[in-house]
Write a structure and sequence with these properties.
Keywords: DNA-binding, Phosphoprotein, Transcription, Transcription regulation
Largest sheet: 5 strands, parallel
Protein name: Response regulator
Pfam families: HTH_18 (PF12833), Response_reg (PF00072)
Helix content: 55-70%
Modified residues (4-aspartylphosphate): 54
Organism: Paenibacillus artemisiicola
Number of helices: 21
Number of strands: 10
């Protein structure tokens, strides 16, 4: 929703434009100001997309206002209205991008046409292709960050590798989603002793990642990233024509090349970065679907290496037995925790089912660890949001022996998960209803004041467009329609009191000018305030 500010020192013109545009169904948040100074208050407290302003005004005039607008809100469109043939002002206005000029004598249809044109220009400016063209460098940076985050999710099992082709295309990943990939991990240590800061460690890991990419590229395709532990990880593929032989032949030629290149990389890191790098390398390419388990097996092998591992390149046999426990429950539960905190119910339950079903045959000790790891995820969430009195059976989370089987135990955990998501959803609904109740109460108590969307949004500390959508969602009517209806209802009540003047009633429902109140009332009821008062008076007399 765009916000349009009407500025004119003549109240009748300002109110007339407001009422005319309000009836055009342009989906605009309309605001009005009766001076340049008042307009500045709007511009300093809220985003304004279109300004419809007189050029000649006392104090801050339209041209001064335009300079401030272009400095603070460069996307804002300005439409100037004037009754003067002021050539200099007109010339300056038409030389400024995003500015239109109209004579007041041209009437409302021209004004509406100019506003529609301004809205169209704003829409064009928000088109995705246009934004992409104007932010290519930023986009490239974001792509690198997005690729790193994507591969971290793949490595740690938070993302199922099911839509790789589409994902690789969107993220501009140069690897082939249809072919397996070699995985290599780096373990860095500074030759000069001393505690390194997080920033220094991250900078070192990034430097090693990029250096390895530059030395490996050519014979193979490689993409490097940094895992959640701060270690570099590389994904390596041979050229497509080299993959025509069988796996054994490919491994016999590629693996020695990779080992040799990583030795050169180690030397380069030691000489140029003062870093000792140990490398763990899979002895064969891994299917993308098995990437997470391959990564975990390699990390376990790294923990049991011979000696200190400095400058070592270790090839891990990925086909060796003894990998039943591919991942620790803690690693897997991290992804569950992310989905729970984000409110992603379907993703959570899908991962939960995959996790608990796949671990049923591993053995009691591992299932015990899995049960309590997931229970701790739930307990942390319950404590953080103070839900202990709202989750039935939560006390059993730390007593697995109450269940007859592991199947029953995990079914209980699944029920707890569904309860937590239901509480989250109902809590969001309750808070929405409470916020809108506050807005409605505020409107009822301040009908004689400014009830712009910006002011109401500031009252409950949300952005205006969200409040507008939330109000419509909760009440079934637009916020502006609700305010008009409330003002009409209050005016009708006050008009039954013949001691109040029509002008006084107009002020009490937010209309300083009697002409504006009369137009507003007649548009809503079909009669003027005085006609309504007389009809109400005759009706009450007839009942007597």
């Amino acid at each position: 929703m765009y916000r349009l500010l009407i500025v004119d020192d003549e109240e009748m013109i300002t109110d007339g434009l407001y009422e005319t545009l309000a009836g055009c169904d342009l989906d605009l948040d309309l605001c009005k100001a009766y001076s340049g100074r008042e307009a500045l208050n709007w511009l300093h407290q809220s985003r304004v997309d279109i300004v419809l302003s007189d050029i000649r005004m006392p104090g801050i005039d339209g041209m001064q206002l335009m300079s401030i607008i272009k400095r603070n809100w460069p996307h804002c469109r300005v439409i100037f209205l004037t009754g003067y043939s002021d050539f200099d002002s007109v010339y300056r206005a038409i030389q400024t991008p995003g500015v239109q000029y109209l004579l007041k004598s041209e009437g409302y249809p021209k004004v509406i046409q100019a506003v529609v044109q301004a809205v169209a220009e704003l829409d064009d400016g928000l088109r995705v292709n246009d934004l992409v063209q104007r932010a290519q460098e930023s986009l490239k940076t974001l792509e690198v960050l997005a690729r790193g985050e994507y591969f971290r999710h793949l490595l740690h099992g938070a993302n199922p590798a099911t839509n790789l082709v589409a994902d690789f295309g969107k993220l501009r990943i140069s690897l082939d989603a249809g072919r397996p990939v070699y995985v290599a991990q780096g373990d860095l240590s500074h030759v000069s002793s001393g505690v390194s800061s997080y920033a220094n460690r991250h900078e070192s890991a990034m430097a090693v990642t990029l250096l390895a990419e530059s030395l490996l590229n050519g014979q193979v395709r490689v993409l490097g990233t940094i895992d959640r532990f701060g270690d570099p990880v590389w994904f390596i593929q041979t050229p497509a024509d080299a993959a025509e032989g069988n796996e054994a032949e490919e491994g016999a030629s590629v693996l020695p090349y990779l080992v040799g290149q990583f030795e050169l990389i180690q030397q380069a890191c030691l000489k140029n970065l003062d870093l000792s790098v140990a490398v763990t390398l899979g002895d064969r390419p891994s299917e993308w679907i098995k990437l997470s388990s391959t990564y975990d097996k390699m990390r376990r092998e790294r923990q049991t290496r011979t000696g200190d591992g400095a400058q070592m390149v270790q090839a891990v046999n990925l086909q060796a037995s003894g990998c039943a426990k591919e991942r620790s429950p803690r690693d897997k539960s991290d992804a569950l925790s992310v989905h729970l905190d984000a409110g992603r119910r379907d993703e959570f339950l899908l991962l939960f089912d995959e996790l608990t079903e796949s671990e049923r045959d591993i053995g009691a000790p591992y299932q015990l660890e899995l049960y309590y790891t997931i229970s701790l995820v739930f307990l942390s969430y319950i404590n953080r949001w103070e839900l202990e009195n709202q989750v039935s059976g939560a006390s059993a989370l730390m007593r697995h022996d109450e269940f007859a089987s592991w199947k029953d135990a995990f079914a209980f955990l699944r029920t707890i998960a569904k309860t937590l998501f239901e509480l989250r959803s109902s809590g969001e609904s309750n808070r929405a209803a409470e916020a809108i109740l506050k807005v409605r109460a505020y409107i009822g108590e301040h009908l004689d004041e400014d009830l712009s969307l910006v002011r109401l949004a500031g009252y409950i500390h949300f952005n205006p467009s969200y409040v507008s959508r939330l109000f419509k969602q909760e009440c079934g009517v637009n916020l502006s329609d609700y305010i008009e209806s409330a003002r009409i209802d209050r005016a009708k009540e006050l008009l039954k009191n013949d001691k109040l003047k029509v002008l006084e009633i107009g002020v009490q429902v937010g209309y300083e000018a009697s002409q504006s109140f009369t137009r507003f009332f007649k548009k809503a009821t079909g009669v003027t305030p005085q006609e309504y008062r007389e009809a109400a008076f005759h009706y009450s007399r007839s009942k007597e």
